[in-house]
Amino acid sequence: MQAATLSYKLKLFPTANKADTLALLTGLFARHHAACTTALREESRCPSTKGMGEFAGRAYRRAFNDWRRTRKAGHMPGALKAELIDAAQVQQPRNAIAFDLWIMVQGVGKLYVPARKHRAINRALAYPSATLCEQGEVFRKNAKWYCRVAVRVPLPEVTPARTFVGVDVGVRASVVRSDGYRGPDLRPILKRQRNRRAMDQRRGIERRVETSPQRQLLAREARRTVLVALKSGRGVAVEDPCRLIRWKAHAARYFGTRVALLASLMGVPANVVNPAHTSTTCPECGFVERRQRHKGTFRCWRCGYTHNADFAASRNVCHRATYVSCTSRNGSLSPCSGGGIVE
Q1: What is the DSSP string of 5-19?
Q2: What Rg do the C-alpha atoms of the chain give, in angstroms?
Q3: DSSP state, 40?
Q4: CA distance 302 to 304
Q5: In whole angstroms, what is the distance from residue 226 CA to residue 260 CA?
Q6: What digits encode the pLDDT tens for the residues 27-47?
Q7: Which residue blocks in 37-118 are alpha helix, DSSP H?
């Protein structure tokens, strides 16, 4: 049975002493990683963490310099290996009852660090037969500690569909569907993001490393689209992310990959179509002309069809998916590339 492995990031809440210990272990791991032999890498074993006492008195800058030399030497320092333990199996202090998991890091002894689940990983664990992997990787980012965990989700069987919901990532609207739905406008979101960055630069604050608001909105729209297709018994048709232009159309590639992954997890049939001329083709008569689109309006020079350009593109995506799946392939769906690791 095929399964998808989804990766999530859990935030750790170490005390000051535990944070210093994690920093020492990470620096020691990066320092000795360059001396790790090929046999150790083939056996997927971590380098030894013995001798932390001699490193404890050094400054943390030494660890960073060693890590940079390791990268220049052609090696890739990994993160600390950890084990996930349920909160019920660990004797919790009085002020740590609200945590869901405990991360055990193997170093000089055992180091237990509490963690808390979030909405995304709880949604993944709600899938049928979804399991949380027992191993994880502890790493540091923006002076905070995280643990990268994996959730294994079995993929259900996909039933062929005769009708599809065509989706197009619009120029002004985030998402436009062939059933008439139009997502929120992206321009105010991008404007607020630019203003926030400009304000941080004037104040002398370093740029925040955060998830793009545009990607957050597209992720919500992708889940909403797959749920609509699941309730109506239809499939989802999107533009092929592999055929889109690499130096632009970043939002369309992210949305297509996200829809393909969610559709495979929920058992919804998904189809990817050729994105060529979807915005310049008339959905009524099929006439193709580059001048038919002017900004956000589409007008056919042959039949006079006039509508929103993104809505016309979504109809063309729906027509191509229906023609390829039902006519040429007798109802069989073409496989689409998802965002997870399918085994």
Answers
A1: EEEEEEEE---HHHH
A2: 25
A3: H
A4: 6
A5: 9
A6: 666 655 544 434 444 444 444
A7: 38-42, 52-56, 60-72
- Helix 213-232 / helix 187-203 crossing angle, nearest 10 deg: 160
Q: How many CB atoms lie within 10 A of CB 283?
A: 21
| Residues 7 and 150 sit within 8 Å (Cβ to Cβ) | yes
13 half-sphere exposure, CB direction, 13 A CA radius: 12
Q: Would you say residue 341 has pLDDT above 50?
A: no
3-state class (DSSP) for residue 123? helix
Cβ contact 20:127 at 8 Å: no
Beta-bridge mates of residue 297: 294, 308
- DSSP assignment string, 183-246: --BSHHHHHHHHHHHHHHHHHTPPPP----HHHHHHHHHHHHHHHHHHHHT-EEEEE-GGGS-T
For residue range 293-306, list pLDDT tens digits in order.
777 788 888 888 88
pTM comes to 0.73
3-state DSSP of 124-169: HHCCCCCEECCEEEEEEECCEEEEEEEEEEECCCCCCCCCEEEEEC
The tokens for 310 are: 């993104």
Per-residue pLDDT tens over the stretch 221-230: 999 999 999 9
Please state, in angstroms and rounded to a whole number, the distance separating the CA atoms of residues 30 and 236: 45
Domains of the chain by range and CATH? Answer: 3-154 (no CATH), 164-185+212-342 (3.30.420)
